[in-house]
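Record 1 of the preview.
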Amino acid sequence: MIPLRARALEFHNAPVGQADVVRVSLSPERPEVVRAQEGYVVGAEAVPNGFAWYLLASADDLVRLPGNAQAVVAPDQTKFLGQGDVIAVDPKRKALRVLYRRCSPYNHFLLTERCNNYCLMCSQPPRDVEDGWIVDEILRAIPLVSRDAIEIGFTGGEPTLLGERFLELVQAAASHLPRTALHILSNGRQFADGRLAAKLASIGHHDLMLGIPLYSDLAHLHDHVVQADGAYDETVRGILALKASSVRVEIRVVLQAQTVGRLPNLARFISRNLLFVDHVALMGLEPTGFARANLEAIWADPVDYANELSAAVRILAGAGIRTSVYNSQLCVMPTEVRPYARRSISDWKQTYLPECENCTSKQECAGFFASVTHARSRGIRPI
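->
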């Protein structure tokens, strides 16, 4: 597991104000004009002048810096920071946050912690806080992201609660990253009346996908899972509005005990009523946040819902809907489902168990969330 945040760091010559967002450099040969927006990782070579920040593995290197240079000692981060990564250096909060890793295909920006759902298995529990500073930080980060990035993601909380600022972020991604796909996780409710969907479509992002959860074919069951009355109706109407505006939609279904028994019914509902969606992802549970707190009520061993998963995949794929299984281990899936499995867990929070060492399918398997200490299937075994 890679540490993307560090706290209680040692700062030097740092103003206590808004966090500084900079691109990481490992090269002392960077043009002078770009050094002012970069953080240089200090190594054994002579330390060049002109960088906005100097990132140190040890306070012993402070004596080597140019006079009055802004510096932060971050031994855990400097081990893995690479050329072109984007970080936020935040003396006020005594923190260094890695916002973007150039070498990773898994880069997601959390836009807000606020949400209008309260899902039983939410891995990022919402907080009713004023966090508009996050948007400002991301708007400064996006122009620093590599134009070669294949995809970035926006997540939350619920990103659409930002209103016009949500659209501003999508526009920034479209303008600064013209070849990069954008995947947005949303509960879809704010799109229900069609106005926000139309505004989003008008931006004309070249490769945009909305990932929207739908947990059941029954309204009351979906509303129970998300702990919000009327959410099912708004979510379905939001999906319809987005597709009416030609915005691509992925339906996300978290596989958990309270809904997995009706998984084939949900698959039939989607194939009959939402056949036009662009992708369906059937997702293993991430046992952190609310999911960990509610684990006894929501955890289901994949071995026990193997038949329901197989049936759902057959129904969706048979209807011509692109279908994937995320966050699940190959060894606990029925053989017929394995071709639909994806290596989906972000590399910074992915791990494997000792049982996986001799597995011939390890490189194709999603593995486990590093947070998995309780919810492990009894069927885990090397293939």
